[in-house]
Amino acid sequence: MSKREEEMIRKLDEQAAMKEEQFFAHIANRLNRQRITKAPDHPFRGAPDFWLAYELSEEKRIELFMTNWTNMGGYTQRFPNLTSLCNYIEDMAQTMKAKYMIRFDHPLLNEMNMEQNLPDVEMTVWNERAEEELLVKAAGADIGIAVVDYAIAHTGTVVALSAAGQGRSVSLLPTVFIAVLRVSDIKTKMGEVMTDLTRRFGNQLPAGVHFISGPSRSADIENDLTIGVHGPGIVHALILDE
Fold first, then answer.
1. Topology of domain 57-240, per CATH?
2. N or C terminus: fewer CB in 10 A for the chain?
3. How far apart are CA 206 and CA 151, in angstroms?
4. Would the pTM count as exceeding 0.70?
C-alpha cells in the first residue's frame, strides 16, 4: 500500500470517529444525560448464586417439563419401560396410517425393532449414506423419531445434538416429530444443559445443538399465528422411566 493510500485511510478513519462521537453526543444531549465514554462497572457475571443453587427433585422436574411442554402445544406421556413406549409409537403410526418414517441411528431405537413390528411402513434410519437421499426421505416422512440428549423443565424444551447418525432434518422435516427422552436427562434449568455441553465438548460443539419447544409456530405475518410452517406441527415428548 502506498503512503498516499495510507494517508487517505487514516483521514477516513478520523472522519468516521468524529461522526460517531457527534452521533452519540447528540443522543446524550437529547436525553439530557452526560456523555458516557467508559463502560460502566459490571461486578456480576452469569446467574446469581440463588439461581445456580436452585434445583427441583426428579418428580418435580418431570411434572414441570410435562406441564410446560403441553402448554407449548406438544403432547407428552410417561412410560415405565421400553416395551410400552414402543407400543405407543407403533399404535400412533397405525392410527395415522403412516407410510414413511425416519429415525435416528440410536441404540435405544435399534432395540425397539420397529422395522419388524411395522411391516407396512418404510422406515429410514439416518446414517452416513448420501445426504441428499436422506433429506428427501425426511421431507416425505410422516413421522420422525429422535432420542434427545436433554430436556429442560423450566422451559418445556428438548435438546437434540447433531451427529453422523442423528441428522437435524429428522426433527425438522417430518409431519410429526417424536422426541424420546430418559428421566435422568431432564434438567431443571437451561444453565445445567449449557454447563454439561461445555463439560462434554469444550469449544468443539456438535455442528447442531437444537432446542425444540413445542410445535413449529410463526406469527411474523400480521401477527397471525400459524402452526407447522417451518417444522412439524405435531410434536410428542415420550419419557422413559428406565
1. Rossmann fold (3.40.50)
2. N
3. 17
4. yes
